[in-house]
């Protein structure tokens, strides 16, 4: 972008709003500006950058290659500035307008995300939480180092010494089948399970996989002819077939009550899978981040307790 000397830095806020909303009217509404004032600001931006930045299309406005190239840096700079000003004033959830990015690769990620959204809205209506629930979010630790992701609720702890891992609760594994399955029943043994066909999920790369996810059960699943992307797809499929599926215990109640399934334990000793709250230590003194950690810990632990799992961490606000 051109030199900032003499430039009204409020134009950067207009650029960000235009990029997010793809609309002059919506960008103006976000910033409290009239449509005329927003259009005037866009004209000044175009003159400064010597590029159209946004082109009109049937659905609104689309960014040019130049706008796409400069947006990430401008967005990060504005977020850093917002964070600095917020921290200088102290963090007040009731008035804060901070944005937080949360990754929840746990299979119950979408459910936890909705619960966190509602809990935050009740006490911090201006705070914006954005969630990523991809099972294969293996770039999460790199994003946390760069400050682009605030924390993660994951099956995998971070090994880098600069990360903080706090255990939230311990999940385990169960086996589910549709209620009308001709052979499935509670208390199935290995011999009976070996006669069945399983649906399975894509697994993370070996170095990013819980060590508990191995052994005899996974040997049975190795030859599965049906592999899906997410655990939330498993109940949908097995409710309509004679496949068996492996689910985390945190999903057992959904399988039994919403999908009316038979749920049985895995033969032998329970397969325990700790669930971690992971964040970079650079955020330790960040009051807003401490609020977020406490919120995530409280709500995920409450959800785990409702699912019959025992929370293992008193607070995440350290």
Automatic annotation (TrEMBL):
It comes from the Bacteria. Keywords: DNA-binding, Transcription, Transcription regulation. Residues 7-64 form the HTH lysR-type domain. PROSITE patterns: HTH_LYSR. InterPro entries: LysR-type_TF, LysR_HTH_N, LysR_subst-bd, WH-like_DNA-bd_sf, WH_DNA-bd_sf, YidZ_PBP2. GO terms for molecular function: DNA binding; DNA-binding transcription factor activity. It holds the Pfam family HTH_1. PANTHER family: HTH-TYPE TRANSCRIPTIONAL REGULATOR LEUO, HTH-TYPE TRANSCRIPTIONAL REGULATOR LEUO-RELATED. Belongs to the LysR transcriptional regulatory family. This is LysR family transcriptional regulator. It comes from Neoroseomonas eburnea. The lineage of its organism: Bacteria, Pseudomonadati, Pseudomonadota, Alphaproteobacteria, Acetobacterales.
């Amino acid at each position: 972008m051109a030199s900032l000397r003499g430039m009204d830095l409020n134009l950067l806020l207009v650029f960000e709003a235009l990029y997010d909303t793809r609309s002059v009217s919506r960008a103006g509404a976000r910033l409290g500006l009239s449509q005329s004032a927003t259009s005037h600001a866009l004209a000044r931006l175009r003159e400064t950058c010597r590029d159209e930045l946004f082109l009109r299309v049937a659905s609104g406005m689309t960014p040019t290659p130049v706008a796409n190239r400069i947006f990430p840096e401008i967005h990060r700079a504005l977020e850093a500035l917002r964070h600095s000003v917020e921290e200088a004033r102290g963090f007040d959830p009731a008035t804060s307008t901070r944005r937080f990015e949360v990754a929840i690769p746990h299979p119950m990620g979408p459910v936890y995300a909705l619960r966190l959204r509602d809990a935050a809205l009740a006490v911090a209506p201006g705070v914006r939480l954005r969630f990523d629930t991809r099972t294969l979010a293996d770039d999460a630790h790199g994003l946390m180092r760069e400050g682009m992701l605030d924390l993660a609720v994951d099956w995998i702890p971070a090994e880098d010494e600069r990360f903080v891992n706090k255990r939230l609760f311990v999940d385990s594994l169960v086996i589910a089948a549709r209620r009308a399955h001709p052979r499935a029943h509670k208390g199935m043994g290995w011999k009976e399970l070996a006669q069945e066909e399983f649906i399975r999920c894509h697994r993370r790369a070996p170095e990013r996989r819980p060590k508990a996810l191995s052994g005899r059960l996974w040997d049975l699943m190795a030859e599965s002819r049906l592999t899906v992307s997410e655990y939330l797809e498993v109940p949908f499929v097995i409710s309509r077939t004679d496949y068996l599926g492996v689910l985390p215990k945190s999903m057992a109640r959904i399988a039994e009550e919403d999908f009316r399934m038979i749920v049985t334990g895995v033969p032998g000793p329970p397969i325990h899978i700790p669930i971690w709250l992971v964040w970079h230590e650079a955020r330790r003194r960040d009051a807003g981040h401490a609020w977020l950690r406490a919120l995530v810990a409280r709500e995920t632990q409450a959800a785990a307790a409702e699912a019959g799992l025992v929370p293992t961490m008193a607070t995440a606000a350290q």
